[in-house]
Amino acid sequence: MRARARHVWSTATLVVLATVGVLAGCSPGTPEPDASATAQVPADAPYRDASLPVPARVDDLIARMTLAEKIGQLTLIERDALALGDVRTGRVGNVLTAGGGGPRDETPAGWADMVDTVQQMAASSRLGIPVLYAVDAVHGLGHLPGATVFPHHIGLGATRDAALVEEVGRAVAAEISAVGIDVTYAPTIAVARDDRWGRTYESFGEDPQLVAELGAAEIAGLQGDDLADPESVIATAKHFLGDGGTTGGVDRGDVAATEDQVRELFLPPYRAAVDAGVGSVMVSFSSIEGEPMHASTHWVSDVLRDELGFTGFVVSDYAALDLIDGADGLSADEVATGINAGIDVVMVPTDADLFAGLLTGLVESGEVSTARLDEAVRAVLTVKFEAGLFESAGADPARFDEVGSDEHRALARRAAAESVVVLSDERGMLPLAPGARVLVAGRSADDVGVQCGGWTLEWQGRAGNQMPGTTIREGASAIADVTYSADGSAVDGSYDAAIVVVGEQPYAEYEGDVGDGDLRLTAADHDLVARVAASGVPTVLVLLSGRPLDLTPELDLVDATVAAWLPGTEGDGVTDVLFGAVGATGTLPVSWPSSVAQEPINAGDGQVPAFPFGWGITYPAR
Ligand code: GLC
Fold it and tell me: 388 and 264 in one domain?
């Protein structure tokens, strides 16, 4: 196990860094810790001694911290809004590169430089407390062209393969830790109960037990056996609690349910995540019976921490405290409410000075007790010590080649194959024969961005082929005699079969909410399917989507339908199944509606879906 490259910085470097800190926004006027508490820290201070138990190191460190430094450990700022000087003075202890963020140099080295610059500034601070650097690696380091992008959770849910999900977690951890990332805001362990929700694809499915099993598996992969392993990262179970159960599937909406119903449906994945030792939990924007989760002492402290025994740190969602009172802008009351409810780290995420000023006043007035402040500081420092960050932090250039490695892409291809669900095959046309003369139709057949969906290259995802990968068209062309026709116009009776690929354009969060829409294909996609199927050539419809769609208008037009979900960069995993190189094994992690009018539709609710939870036509590899 190679230790992460530890940047041993010379005095000259530290002087430069300190200067950089000044130039980078830490103006000479930035208040230093008050003189009485800024005694230089002896090199042999107990908190620096890795042989001591973590609690003893935390106790020693907290005793040395000024109020400003303690508040800094509760402060999470987005990289694009970060003044590096605030890291040097200890006023910011947590940093996030949000979806779509990232360095101009879009390479592992560029990412490593971005992260290491922040860690170097942290190392030059008075106490040398490392930063927790986070990204949303929800299906790989999707921000970075060239990284491996795995199937989104709904596809992994269709695999029902916990061992595979753990391997995926391990591979994601390897790629992001190589560039110096410490925390990923994954896994989402939402139980998706209404497919109209824009984040359905981030869920493993509608069943609490399935979500619990796969969420714990991903956490095991991400965190490994030892959080201090340089190839481990801190996982974040999210979003606590009930984000997938809102009325109408409205993102950030309200869950109308009794406490017993909430406990039965949404708590099992968190019990499993806590038992798996998850390092962090992120609170949900949503509410339960009108109570914002970011204000809920009952759920965050009484249940998550006291009843489930969670010992990591609780992080708020992006500027979520600002919304507690329903109005924009962060108030002292909202800060007090969130922190007193049990939130330890606040994703501010842009105005560190405002947050520090509000919290300083709250501590000085006693509205946030020193005991509560120290409890929150203790929670985040404990994880930093357990992750070994005081001993080694930052990127490992020797492992840059793991980003997008052939090994990881092969794993992603296997995961994509296992996620494929064959919904219908009336004429038994699947698997197709290798070498067959096949028409491949549809723009989505040639689009890695559509395969990847949201949280890829940017928050909302991006159609097109800027993310290196293999399209379904390319995968099929490697196995068969393929003619590609984006609009299907090339179809004629001479083909042995046709593959029509349709689906959703990328989206994320509330941008993907269906609202009062109809869950149907676009008119253009429907017409494409009809045009190809009318040729009489045996036709299989392949759907790339973050959720079940209402295929009622298409089911009778085609001979087979396949749900490929959002398979990621390795679209050849899908064609492996279509041509039988790999058997069809996927089964539905959600009930498949025959109409949006059925939503929410879930197993056991008395409705008759188009295809039930657990459905999938299977066949062996050729
Ligand atoms: C977003 C999401 C959350 C994500 C966070 C940081 O709003 O709700 O899942 O981790 O902000 O990007």
Answer: yes
Atom of ligand 1 nearest to the CA of 202: 9
Residues 497-531: pLDDT tens digits? 999 999 999 999 999 999 999 999 999 999 999 99
Q: How far is the CA of 286 from the centre of ligand 1 (A)?
A: 13
Percentage of the chain exceeding pLDDT 90 = 92
pLDDT category at 38 given cuts 50, 70, 90 is: low
509 catalytic, yes or no? yes
Active site residue 353: no
> Which atom of ligand 1 is nearest to 136's Cα?
10
Catalytic one of 207, 317, 396, 418: 317
18 has a pLDDT exceeding 50 = no
Q: Whose CA is nearest to atom 11 of ligand 1?
A: 318
Per the rule left: phi > 0, alpha: psi between -120 and 50, beta: everything else, 224 is left
Question: What are the pocket residues of ligand 1 if the criterion is a CB atom closer than 6 Å to any ligand atom?
Answer: 98-99, 136, 185, 238, 317-318
CATH code (residue 360): 3.20.20.300
> What's the CATH code of the domain at 477?
3.40.50.1700
Q: Does residue 348 share a domain with residue 317? A: yes
Q: Say how many domains are in the chain.
A: 2
Q: Is the pLDDT of residue 11 over 50?
A: no
| Res 567 pLDDT > 90 | yes
* Residues in CB range of 302: below 8 A, 6 or more apart: none
Quickly count: other Cβ atoms within 10 Å of residue 322's Cβ.
19
pLDDT confidence of residue 328: 87
Nearest-angstrom CA–CA distance, 125 and 390: 13
User: Are 371 and 453 in a shared domain?
Assistant: no
C-alpha to C-alpha distance for 330 and 336, rounded to whole angstroms? 11
Say what the pTM is: 0.94
194 and 217 inside one domain: yes
Identify whether residues 458 and 351 lie together within a single domain. Answer: no
Give the closest residue (by CA) to ligand 1 atom 10: 185
Catalytic residue among 509, 525, 572, 576: 509
Same domain, yes or no: 328 and 435: no
Residue with CA at minimum distance from ligand 1 atom 7: 318
Please list the alpha-helical segments (H only) found in 296-347.
Answer: 297, 332-341
User: Residue 415's domain spans which residues?
Assistant: 406-598
